[in-house]
Amino acid sequence: MTCLVRVVAVGVPGGSGGPAAHGIRDVAGAPGARPGDAGGMGDDEPLERQIRFVLEADRLKTVARQSRITDGSRHENSAEHSWHLALMALALAAHAPAGTDLTRVLAMLLVHDMVEIDAGDLFLYSDSAALARQEEAERAAADRIFAILPDPQDGEVRALWDEFEQRRTPEARFARALDRLQPMLLNMQTGGGTWVAHGVTVEQVLAKVTLIEEGSAALGRYARAMIATAVAQGFLQAGSGPGTAGSGPEATGPGQGTDVAVAGPPAG
Question: Residue 262: inside a domain, yes or no?
Fold first, then answer.
């Protein structure tokens, strides 16, 4: 983990198929560049593989998400989503559990959606069968994409992705809390956003708040107040909605409930 931690700490910015199907052209467009070739800038094989990985990550900018950006003009892409989460981690670090390793949180957030390069983005409230297919596709994508990196970095970065998915550490739970909170924030700024577009119910959204509460009590309280406001403004429906409300592994956990009191809008 040392190489990746050094990169994050110093503040460096940040369809399926095999590697050949997803090769990246030489960024300079040099004649004769092979698919997946970083441009032949040197004979250092680990560096070449790291550059290939960085160029592969650029493809995340082409993956459209359901959420719209706050001015409502277009959908955000998955690279923008990952950047936004990393910024949230910095801004909201005071609300993480005591002792949380923020560097590890940032690293997880930067790589957590790279699998969408192959698997695409799936609507959060899809049915259980679609969620199961997505999980399988994302694991296959993780096998391919993180293996672009040289050993042992490939295993280290893959471990970050696995940690985020499994939610067994305070860092993973805080990272996942941010991942669940961010689309809610965008929906509140875009007249209900995906909630209105897909007829999502308050019960479905509250089932996801559990993940926020597991990662940060303060952010969980904020999310519940925000949902109450969404109900008052007509952004969320009552009763069963599309898909299976509360289905899938992310729907269970301590503190889950469907009670919500209408309150004033959250600050900001």
Answer: no
**Interatomic CA distance for residues 114 and 82, integer angstroms:** 9
Instruction: List own/partner pairs for 114-117 with CB under 8 A and 24 or more apart.
Output: 114/57, 114/60, 114/141, 114/142, 114/145, 114/146, 114/161, 115/139, 115/141, 115/142, 115/145, 115/161, 116/60, 116/63, 116/78, 116/141, 117/22, 117/56, 117/57, 117/59, 117/60, 117/63, 117/141, 117/145
- Whether 266 maps to a domain, the answer reads no
| For helices 128-145 and 153-166, angle between their N-to-C axes, nearest 10 degrees | 160
Domain that residue 86 falls in: 2-8+45-251
Give the model confidence (pLDDT) of 4-54 as tens digits. 444 333 333 334 343 333 433 333 333 444 445 556 556 689 999 999 999
- Whole-model pTM: value is 0.77
Model confidence over 166-215: pLDDT tens digits? Answer: 999 999 999 999 999 999 999 999 999 999 999 999 999 999 999 999 99
Residue 109 resides in a domain: yes
Structure tokens at 119: 């698997």
